[in-house]
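User: Here's a protein and a ligand (beta-D-fucofuranose). What would the complex look like?
Assistant: Let me lay out the input and then the predicted complex.
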Amino acid sequence: MLLLVLLVCLTACASAEDKNTETPAETEKETGSISAGPEDGVDSVAVNPKGTLTIGFVMIGSESDWRIACNRSVEEAFSRENGYYLVMRDGQQKQENQMKAMREFIDMDVDYILLNPVAENGWDAVLQEAREAGIPVVVFDRKVRTADPDAYTTWIGSDFLLEGRRACAWLEAFLESRQYQDRLNIVHLQGTMESSAQIGRTRALDEALRRNRRWNLLERKPAEFTTAKAKEVMADMLKLYGERIQVVYCENDNMAYGAIDSIERAGRNVGANLERGDVLVISFDAVRHAMELALKDDIAVVTECDPLYGPRLTQIIQQLKRGEVPDHEIYVKEAQFSAIWEPSQVMVNGIAHKVTKLTEEIIENRAY
Ligand code: GYE
C-alpha cells in the first residue's frame, strides 16, 4: 500500500490539559513521515515503504500526565525504525472525533487500528465497519462495551474496579490500624464520565460506602481527569462543606494535584493525620510527581495504573501479523504505593495485595 500523505506534522500536545474545542481531530501527527518543512521544498512524499505496517492510532487527548506518558509510549514503540508507519489522530476528549478518525483509517485501509476509547458505549457501528473492511482493531486502556463481544480483536488494559477496590481497602485498613471509629466525611472527584477508569473506580467506592456505614459521601462531582477542573470543583466543595471534609477520593493524579492546591489555598493541611484535621488524599495512576507527593504524605495512597502500552501493543500486533490469536481480554498487573507504613498489604475478595512502601529510589527509577 502506497500512501501519499501531506506532511502536517503538528506536534502532539505536550501539556496535560485539553481544550474542549469543537473542532474534530485537529492535532495530528504522522510519525512515520519524513520530517520535512516547507523550506525543503517537499509538499508530499511517499511515506510508507514496502514492508512497514500502517497503524492508525485513535487517541483520547492529553488530559493528564498519565495520558501523555501513554501516548508517548505508543509513539515511541511504533517508530519508523521499528518498521511501522504510525498515523495519530487526537480525539480531544470527544467520541465523535474518535469515530471520525476510525472512519478515516478505514478509508485509508490501514493495516491495524489502535483504539483508545474515551467512553465505553456507542462503538458498535464503527467497529462493524472496520470488521467489514477486514481491519483488526486493538482496543487498549479503557474498554468498549459492545453487543457482540467479537466486535474488536482484543483489549488490553487495567482492572479499574480492582484498582478502586485496593484504594478503598487501603483506607479501611489504615483506619483500622489507627483505631479510627468516628464518622468519616468523603468527597469524590470523578474522571471523564462513562470512561472505564471512572466506572471502575467509582463502583469500588460505592461498594465501600455500602460496607462502611460510618463513611459518609458528602458529594461527588466529575472533574474530567484534569488539574484545572479539579481545582475548581474542590474549591466549590470546600466552600460548601469547609472543615467537614476529611477525605478526597480523586480518580487520578492530576485531579489530586488540583484538589491539593485548593485544599491548601483554603488553609487546610493535606496528610494522613485525621485527628489533627488533615484532609487525606487518595489518588490513582502513580506518575512521578504524584509519587513525590505521596513520599511526603500529601497523597496518602496512590494505586498504580500503568500507561506504558507501546511495547505491549507492538507485541500484540506482531502476534496478529503472524496469524496468532491473542487473548480477547488482557489485564495489566499493577502496584500500590504509600509512604505510610501501615497497612503493608490489603485484602480484596480474599486475595492479599502488597502495598509498596515508597522510597526515593522507587521514584528515581520511575519511567514516567
Ligand atoms: O487514570 C487518567 C487518564 O484511562 C487509565 O485516563 C486512564 C485514565 C488515567 O487521563 O489519568
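Summary: Residues 63-64, 66-67, 141-142, 158, 197, 225, 252, 284-285, 305 surround beta-D-fucofuranose (CB under 6 Å).
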